Amino acid sequence: MPLVGVVLGSKSDQAYGDETSAVLEQLGIEHEVVFASAHRTPDKVREYTQGARERGIEVLIAEAGGSAGLPGVMASWTTLPVIGVPLPSSELGGIDALHAIAQMPPGIPVACVAIGSWGARNAAFFAAQILANKHADISASYEEYRAGLASR
């Protein structure tokens, strides 16, 4: 059963989703990837987000560029942790998405990571840190990964 739901705002964001998935797979974390846009398919976003907890999802990762409404919209529909990944899909290189995600109003928080590839991978690592508080196998996997960083 997937513990992490990765939502990509557009199929053109697939490469970033692949990076997130690769880290989750490396750490042995089951996840699912869906495409849903806060602007083009808002009903799909709402239905997916509201049903996530019932499906066993414990952390949501939302990756979007441009106005990057996806993470905030998802956070408005759930109390699960939402990690927003700003993507560099506009002429502004992702700064617009970064601001949209990082500047959420109080009360409906969204965690925000770096723009692009670094953020796509760090979102997965952050999800692992959250899940490690409850899942011993994920904790062990993440600890092993971190220990391996020291030998590089």
List the helices and strands and how they pair.
Layout: E1 4-8, H1 14-26, E2 31-35, H2 42-51, E3 59-65, H3 70-76, E4 82-87, H4 95-102, E5 111-112, H5 117-132, H6 136-149
Helix pairs in contact: 1-5, 5-6
Describe the 3D structure.
- This protein has 152 residues and is α/β, with parallel strands linked by helices.
- The protein has one domain: Rossmann fold, CATH 3.40.50.
- Helix 1 packs parallel to helix 5 and helix 5 crosses helix 6.
- The model has no long low-confidence stretch (mean pLDDT 96).
Short recap of the structure:
By secondary structure, the protein is of the alpha/beta class. The protein contains six helices and five strands.
Sketch the topology as an H/E string, one letter per element. EHEHEHEHEHH
Taking the alpha carbons of the first and last residues, their distance comes to 33 Å
Give the rounded overall mean pLDDT. 96
| Computed Rg | 15 Å
Summarize the amount of helix as a percent range: 40-55%
How many domains would you count in the coordinates? 1
Poorly predicted runs: none
Helix-strand category: alpha/beta
How much of the sequence lies in strands comes to 15-25%
Number of helices: 6
Shape: globular
Q: Based on the structure given, which CATH architecture is correct?
A: 3-Layer(aba) Sandwich
**CATH fold-level assignment:** Rossmann fold
> Strand order of the main beta sheet, please?
2-1-3-4-5
β-strand number: 5
